[in-house]
Structure formats: C-alpha cells, structure tokens
From TrEMBL:
Keyword annotations: Magnesium, Metal-binding, Transferase
Cited InterPro entries: Isoprenoid_synthase_dom_sf, Polyprenyl_synt, Polyprenyl_synt_CS
Keyword Metal-binding tagged: yes
PROSITE patterns found in the cross-reference section: POLYPRENYL_SYNTHASE_1, POLYPRENYL_SYNTHASE_2
Source domain of life: Bacteria
UniProt cross-references to SUPFAM superfamilies, sorted A to Z: Terpenoid synthases (SSF48576)
Pfam families from the UniProt entry: polyprenyl_synt
Coiled coil: none
Statement: the UniProt record of this protein carries the keyword Metal-binding: yes
Identification of the protein by name: Geranylgeranyl diphosphate synthase type I
Family: Belongs to the FPP/GGPP synthase family.
Length: 368
C-alpha cells in the first residue's frame, strides 16, 4: 500500500482540495481587506496554518464517497472536494482554539497563531498587553475559519439534491457541536479532581477524545462521504462503525506522540503534552498501574510549564515503567483491528475499500 501522501494524491485529490482552499482564501482575503486596514494578517496566518496539513480528513471523506459508488468526475465529485476543503478549514479552527486553551507555543514546527500575533504586538510596540492581544486575535481567527468552513460547505451542498444536501448539513452541524462540547469536556477534565479513581479517569479521557477528535478526524469524514454518495442508512451506519474506533486509535497515537514523539517530526517540543498537563488515557493508566514513586512524579509535575528536558525524561521513564505505553499501544491495536474489520465487511467498492484501508493505517501507524 502506498504511503499516506501518495494515497492523498490519488485522483488528483490533494491538488483539487488545495485549489478549493486557495479559491476560498482569495475571496476571504479580499473580503477581509475591504473591511479595514491591517486585517489581512488574519488570512495570511490561515494560509500558513493550512499549508502544513496532511489532508487525511478530506481523503477519508472523498474515498468513502468513491467506495460508496460516487463518481470520479462530475458535480457530486466537485462538491465532495469542496467538503474536503471545508473539513480542512474546520480543523484549522479547532487547532487555533486548542492552541490557545493549551497555551501551546508551536504547531507543525512553527509558532502558534497566538504567539505570532503576540510577537507582532511587541515588535510594533502597540499599547496594551501583548499576550491578551495574541490570544484575542487567535480566537477570532479560529471563529473566522469556522465561518469559512460552513460557507464553503454550504456552497458545495447547494449544488446537490436537496435531500443529500440536508443530510450532509445536519451531519456537519452535529460535528461542529460535538467538537465544541468536546473541547469544553477537555477543559472540565483539566479542572476536576484527577487520580482518585483511575478507571473513571480513563473513561473520562476516552469520552473527551471521542467527542473532541475521533469523530471529526475519521468517523464524520467517512459518514459524510457515504451520505454524499447517496448511501443507504445501513451503509452509513456500517462505515460509522469503522470510523469511530479508527478515530480513537488515531487520537491515542497523537497522545503517545505528544509525550514520546520526535520534535523534528512532530513539529512540537519533546514532552509538550506533559508541560500542558493533558489528562489522557496514557496518564490515567500510569496513575492506575505505576508504583508510588511514579504516581507521585506524575501528580507533582504534570502541567508544569517549566519542566526541563531532564524532568521530561524522568516522567517518560515513569510512564513507560508503569506499563502504560504498552497498554495504550495494545488498545490502539485493538481499536484499529476493530475498525479495519468493519471496513473489510462493509458494502464498499473494492478499490475504495483498499484506499480507505491504507488511509486507516496511515492515520494510526504514524510518527507525526
């Protein structure tokens, strides 16, 4: 099976999605510029963020459409490409807001948007607080991307039969709501007591990852593609059954990379999730199975933004020694097998199934 980048390139998908994004951003840049001076800094930052995307969500949507009988050319295909672009805009909105809430400094090897605007404020010696300016600008930019997502999706769906467009709109609306609520659940989990009941902690961590990431990363793109191809409710349900466990496995891989990933590959500092204090399945399992020293180390240092590289190394050793890494890897394997099995038995076009299977492996078996 080809690498992820080659799979996304099939049938000219990446080029066409990028072209749809460029057209939308050009229109948006003109609209923003007409609103007032200095505002194109917003669209410039969106372009920078979108330039580094893998386009996996767009590919899951497109190849689900093709696997459910969608044509490789024509108006429906054009609409699916634009929905792929809308999914990329949606992800940009989610990342912008997530980076603010996590106080992240980098994204894909570049400064996060709030840090870029904060630096702009300082460089130009504007009045007021630079941190607050950067945060405000990034929040507004995330809102702008969310509006752009729904505008692009709306224009795409207007070209389709009414019943198909309505079903897809309902799904996009539900996706938007569940990610917003998932973000709140993530904030809530950070605030509530943690470490008293490891089983409940893991349940809460999995609830967050499903609502905040798993569904919009894999399940919703797959079901959107099926709906856009006119698939029956049974076939939509079947692809959803594949998408949710694959989405969970995708996010669990992200959680491992957030602690153990290579910064040269992930584009984020080593152990960044530890400094941000992310309460994940990995952390819950460490507290459940680690010895007293490991639990004390995690409880004391998780969420300390001043962690040194040596502190991160000590936390990594405690997490690994507890068996949590091996346990999460086993859970990823279990969920991936469940999703791949569902793909194998779903009523899909053979070539589409093959590409979706490759995309599933690319989402789960990755280093960034």
């Amino acid at each position: 099976m080809p690498a992820a980048s080659a799979l996304v390139d099939l049938e000219n998908l990446r080029h066409d999605v990028d072209d749809a994004l460029d057209r939308h951003l050009t229109r948006l840049r003109d609209e923003v510029a007409a609103t007032g001076p200095g505002t194109t800094a917003l669209t410039d930052q969106v372009s920078t963020l979108l330039a580094g995307g893998k386009r996996l969500r767009a590919a899951f949507c497109y190849w689900s459409f093709r696997a459910h009988g969608g044509a490789s050319s024509g108006a429906a295909r054009d609409a699916v490409v634009r929905i792929g672009a809308a999914l990329e805009l949606f992800q940009a909105a989610a990342l912008l807001h997530d980076d603010v809430m996590d106080a992240s400094d980098t994204r894909r090897g570049r400064p996060t948007a709030h840090r870029v605007f904060e630096a702009r404020h300082r460089e130009r010696q504007w009045s007021g607080d630079a941190d607050r300016f950067g945060t405000a600008a990034a929040i507004l930019l995330g809102d702008l991307c969310l509006v752009a997502c729904h505008r692009e999706a709306g224009a795409a769906l207007d070209a389709l039969p009414t019943d198909v467009g309505r079903a897809a709109r309902d799904m996009l609306d539900a996706m938007t709501s569940e990610v917003v609520v998932g973000q709140y659940l993530d904030v809530l989990v950070q605030a509530e007591a943690w470490g008293l009941d490891p089983t409940a902690d893991e349940d809460r961590a999995r609830l967050v990852l499903r609502a905040k990431s798993a569904r919009y990363s894999v399940e919703r793109p797959l079901t959107l593609g099926a709906v856009l191809a006119g698939a029956s409710p049974d076939r939509v349900a079947a692809i959803s059954a594949a998408g949710l466990p694959l989405g969970e496995a995708f996010q669990l891989r992200d959680d491992l990379l957030g602690v153990f990933g290579d910064p040269e590959v992930t584009g984020k500092p080593a152990g960044d999730d530890l400094r941000e204090g992310k309460r994940t399945v990995l952390v819950a399992r460490t507290l459940a199975a680690g010895d007293d020293d490991a639990r004390l180390l995690v409880t004391k240092h998780l969420g300390d933004a001043r962690l040194t590289d040596d502190d991160v190394a000590a936390l990594r050793a405690a997490i690994t020694g507890s068996g949590a890494v091996a346990g999460v890897e086993a859970l990823i394997d279990e969920l991936a097998a469940q999703g791949l099995s569902a793909l194998a038995t779903a009523d899909l076009d053979a070539h589409g199934r093959e590409v979706l299977t490759g995309l599933a492996h690319a989402a789960v078996d990755r280093a960034a």
